[in-house]
Specification:
It contains 25 helices and 30 strands. The chain is an alpha/beta fold. Helices cover about 35% and strands about 20% of the residues. A seven-stranded mixed sheet has the order 9-8-11-10-12-13-14, sandwiched between helices. Strands 20, 25, 26, 27, 28, 29 and 30 form a seven-stranded antiparallel sheet that branches. Strands 2-1-5-6-7 form a five-stranded parallel sheet, with helices on both faces. The chain starts with 9 loop residues before the first helix and ends in a 19-residue tail after the last strand. The chain has four domains: about 140 residues, Rossmann fold; about 180 residues, 3-Layer(aba) Sandwich (Rossmann fold), CATH 3.40.50.261; about 170 residues, D-amino Acid Aminotransferase, Chain A, domain 1; about 80 residues, ATP-grasp fold, A domain (Dna Ligase, domain 1).
């Protein structure tokens, strides 16, 4: 057990306690209160164990105390296994005991409706009053694997270097079981974070980062109650300890209540993946990738780039590997002439010595050729990582038993080579699940061996993503929004008038006053003014009805394009009539007249308040088909130049930005400047809940905002992301 020091924090006492009280201890072998004590004793926990039960005298050979306050020694952690309604009484009893924390197992709190929410607020208040931190409630428990502190009751949890924070008891059991079948994969800690009523996801990160037993942090997340604080903590921790997350709850993109395209496109999964990556967290899409990716990140150096050399003993594996890597954004680069010459010297004429390298039977009789090829490929300056794919490690099974000894020697050499080069190697083998000796040597040496080509590719993609993050981590957002009064007069006036929606005219004026590149516009309030304004544009013009009550003007028939001077007066009347028919109660300010612009690349730039992560910006291909194309990228505010550059790189249709069909490429620097200016504008006006610039025209000469919509929050000071709901953790 760790020695107690004067500077020891509550989280340290909770995660590595010297003394544990089991509140609700039982003499009934079928009860959690009996099994918890048994698990602690049999698991090798060498701290003090105090059963608490007012109706018993002895359990498992231990003296039983009626209350926690009756225990004579200091208690660090209480495991509370009582029903939910008794928990407040337990916490009241703990007042003045110097208890650091409590694990509240019971369900029936925030996840169970209004009465449960009230009870949850009560126990959080009591815990705060008495200086006690809570894990849960609605949690499966916690484990310090290396210390034998098992407050879950799960058997056979393998020791290792992964710290697991999980929001589902059943998911935790699945991950424990999977790790038990994987050589070299195990856990340092497990915490079922439960409802996050008190201790949140982000509060565990610094402890796990400092823990010498933890090499990587693994998350299964359903919802975060303080996602913004998690991003801040993850940004600091991820440069030292890799963080890998599987986020469930992929919603259909589009929210019925969204008032803008940006809001409709801000799906939970898309935003979470992007902002977690921004903070340095590696996200995986599938549950079967989680441990494999975590194992790779915990045992291998980060890749210095996205370029992967493939070494395969079959054309099928080579081709599938190349496809899998390409699907994940990695490249299979050309090898230098020198590398190809070295490969040609050891491989038969039928072999492919370009990348991917297919040995074409060159290793059938002498598996040491694998090492010769791997050495040549890793020495190539174009290669950042190596994927060895096919049958390696199984030649003793597939061909002849004596080949096992040869492969063992090659495995030793590959481990040494990887250490010397500092370059990651991942092995995919059809015999990965056979537990062969060559694979054991590789795994003990830190080289992962997996059966699936897709999982191998995902592991390499994660190593490349982590490497990229390490290179530019200091250039990314710190996720800290500055406190500010609303800078724009239009925003302040709207709040004073009780309005939550700015009209397009008002929104454009506010943006223009800030210095953003807004296309020219003029508000007219009569047919005659409309005719004069259209004439002044040089014709033709665009005319749009202006009303804070009508956000999507096209749906209301409130937009007319290519309007000539002779048509302006009639068009003015038609637009107002259509708007009044669409919404008879709408407050109509007039009609906005703007010159028709040449068709350019149409972008959308927007900001929304994500329910978990707070203010998030979006950029992508815009126009009327934005919600069909869904080619958008997200990052959390405030934005940095590195964030803005990454957002543009995330757009899939790069050919549109680079000048499709003979067009000049878009001025990327102008787009980046716009993103940074919008970020600053929103940060300077905390009342803005949602901003939508669509379309923004972009070409080789710059950008122009053509349309703008701004929605204000009800409370101008409410800038934090609201709490997100979480699921039942004891599934």
């Amino acid at each position: 057990m760790a020695e107690t020091t004067e500077t020891e924090t509550d989280i340290e006492r909770i995660m590595d306690p010297d003394a544990v009280a089991v509140v609700g201890a039982s003499t009934d072998e079928t009860k959690r209160g009996y099994q918890a004590i048994e698990t602690l004793q049999e698991g090798g926990y060498d701290g003090d164990i105090y059963p608490v039960n007012p109706s018993a005298e002895e359990i498992h050979g231990l003296e039983v105390y009626p209350t926690v306050s009756a225990i004579p020694g200091r208690v660090d952690l209480a495991l509370i296994v009582t029903p939910a309604h008794i928990v407040p009484d337990v916490l009241e009893d703990c007042a003045g005991t110097d208890l650091a924390g409590a694990v509240v197992i019971a369900v029936g709190f925030g996840e169970a409706g209004s009465d449960g929410e009230k009870l949850e607020r009560e126990i959080v208040s009591l815990a705060d009053e008495h200086g006690i931190r809570l894990i849960g409630p609605n949690t499966s428990g916690m484990i310090n694997v290396h210390e034998g502190l098992n407050l879950v009751g799960a058997e056979g949890v393998p020791e290792g270097g992964l710290g697991l924070l999980c929001q589902s008891g059943n998911m935790a059991i699945s991950l424990f079981t999977e790790a038990a079948t994987r050589e070299g994969v195990g856990y340092s800690h497990y915490v079922g974070v439960g409802n996050e009523a008190d201790l949140k996801f982000h509060e565990y990160l610094p402890y796990l980062n400092d823990d010498p037993e933890t090499d990587a942090i693994v998350l299964y997340v359903e919802g975060m109650s303080e996602g913004r604080k998690f991003l801040q903590a993850a940004r600091e921790v991820s440069t030292e300890t890799p963080i890998i997350a599987l986020k469930s709850g992929k919603s259909d993109v589009g929210k019925e209540s969204a008032s803008s395209h940006t809001g409709a496109l801000a799906g939970d999964s898309a935003v979470a993946h992007a902002v977690l990556e921004q903070a340095g967290v590696v996200s995986v899409e599938r549950s079967d990738e989680l441990l494999a990716v975590a194992n790779s990140l915990s045992s291998l150096p980060a890749a210095e780039g996205p370029n992967v050399g493939i070494l395969a003993d079959g054309g099928g594996h080579a081709t599938l590997a190349a496809d899998a890597l390409a699907e994940r954004g990695l490249s299979v680069p050309d090898l230098t002439a020198e590398t190809q010459q070295r490969l040609g010297e050891v491989l038969p004429d039928a072999a492919s010595i370009v990348n991917p390298v297919d040995v074409a039977g060159g290793t059938d009789d002498d598996q040491r050729v694998f090492y010769d090829c791997a050495e040549a490929i890793l020495a190539d300056p174009n290669v950042d990582a190596l994927l060895l794919a096919g049958l390696f490690g199984g030649y003793g099974i597939r061909f002849a038993e004596q080949y096992t000894d040869v492969e063992c020697g090659v495995a030793d050499e590959l481990v040494t080579l990887a250490d010397e080069q500092g370059t990651p190697i991942v092995v995919q083998s059809a015999y990965a699940e056979f537990g062969t000796e060559p694979h054991e040597i590789l795994r003990e040496g830190g080289i992962p061996v997996v059966e699936s080509i897709d999982i191998a590719a995902s592991s390499l993609a994660s190593l490349a993503a982590h490497g990229t993050h390490l290179d530019i981590a200091d250039e990314k957002s710190d996720f800290r929004l500055r406190e500010a009064d609303n800078e724009a007069d239009a925003v302040t006036r709207a709040l004073e008038d009780g309005r939550q929606q700015l009209s397009e005219y008002t929104a454009k004026r506010a943006l223009r006053d800030r210095g953003l590149p807004v296309a020219s516009f003029e508000l007219v309030e009569s047919p005659a003014e409309a005719r004069q304004a259209v004439a002044s544009t040089g014709e033709p013009a665009a005319m749009k009805v202006v009303s804070s009550d009508i956000v999507h003007k096209s749906d209301a028939g409130g937009v007319a394009l290519d309007v000539r001077e002779t048509e302006a007066e009639a068009t003015y009347e038609e637009l107002l009539a259509a708007a009044r028919e669409y919404d008879p109660d709408a407050d109509i300010e007039g009609v906005l007249v703007s010159p028709m612009l040449e068709e350019n690349v149409e972008l959308i730039v927007g900001v929304v308040d994500d329910e978990q992560f707070g203010r998030v910006m979006m950029v992508g291909l815009g126009g009327v088909f934005v919600e069909v194309l869904e080619d958008v990228a997200f990052r959390a505010l405030p934005l940095t130049e590195a964030d803005a550059q990454a957002m543009l790189s995330d757009i899939e249709a790069q050919e549109m930005l680079d000048g499709a069909r003979g067009n000049a490429p878009v001025d990327r620097e102008a787009v980046i400047d716009l993103l940074l200016e919008v970020s600053a504008f929103v940060e300077a006006n905390p009342a803005i809940e949602e901003l939508d610039l669509n379309p923004v025209f972009a070409d080789d000469e710059g950008v122009e905002i053509v349309d703008a919509a701004v929605t204000l929050r009800e409370s101008a000071t409410d800038t934090e992301a609201p709490a997100a709901p979480v699921g039942d953790t004891d599934d």
